[in-house]
Write a structure and sequence with these properties.
Largest sheet: 5 strands, antiparallel
CATH architecture of the largest domain: Roll
Radius of gyration: 22 Å
Number of helices: 1
Distance between the termini: 55 Å
CATH topology of the largest domain: SH3 type barrels
Number of domains: 3
CATH class of the largest domain: Mainly Beta
Order of helices and strands: EEEEEEEEHEEEEEEE
């Protein structure tokens, strides 16, 4: 049975009946007290990060996670449809499982889906996406220095707050984790 001596960043363990990925860990030996391992764990499903201590040498259950690259095809009534890039099989995933970033996925976008056997344990979207602005109020010349923002609809149907100088047809870079505007894409 694996123990805390097998910890390494990226290892997925089962703790309190949930899957957690080890972000970082440190072995601590405080003088004449018992040694322990201080860890920072990230929940595979929710993304929540916690800190926890394990006794040195404590038995743990490790989980083997398989990562496969899929291509987003389209949204249907039940969720998002993805295609396996290796064997071209399609699968539908509930939009709630994909997360908040699902509204920024456009056709052809690549994502990584994490599996524990046949069960989906997580979906990793690209951190940034480039989307065309389809609808927004017109920008005013000279507003590039003004820190104000305005709502803009992008090609996937999502609404993003963008600076006042952004116009319809501009391509903007968006952070899928926060839904925030990063920059206007040149070209």
């Amino acid at each position: 049975m694996p123990s805390t001596s097998d910890f390494r960043p990226g290892l997925v363990i089962k703790y309190n009946n949930e899957l957690w990925q080890i972000i970082e860990f440190q072995h601590v030996n405080p003088g004449n007290w018992r040694a322990f391992v201080r860890t920072k764990l990230k929940n595979v499903k929710s993304g929540k990060v916690i800190e926890n201590r394990f006794r040195a040498g404590e038995a743990i259950e490790t989980i083997r996670i398989e990562r496969k690259e899929f291509q987003f095809l389209f949204r249907d009534g039940s969720g998002c449809v993805f295609m396996d890039k290796e064997n071209y099989e399609q699968m539908s995933v509930q939009e709630s499982e994909v997360g908040e970033g699902a509204k920024f996925l456009k056709d052809g976008e690549s994502v990584d889906i994490l599996f524990n056997g046949a069960e989906i344990t997580g979906i990793e979207l690209p951190i940034t996406v480039e989307l065309r602005v389809t609808e927004t109020v017109p920008g005013v010349k000279g507003d590039s220095a003004n820190p104000g923002t305005k709502p803009a609809h992008v090609e996937t149907g999502a609404t993003v707050n963008v600076p006042l100088f952004i116009n319809e047809g501009d391509v903007v870079k968006i952070d899928t984790r926060s839904g925030g505007y990063i920059e206007r894409v040149k070209g």
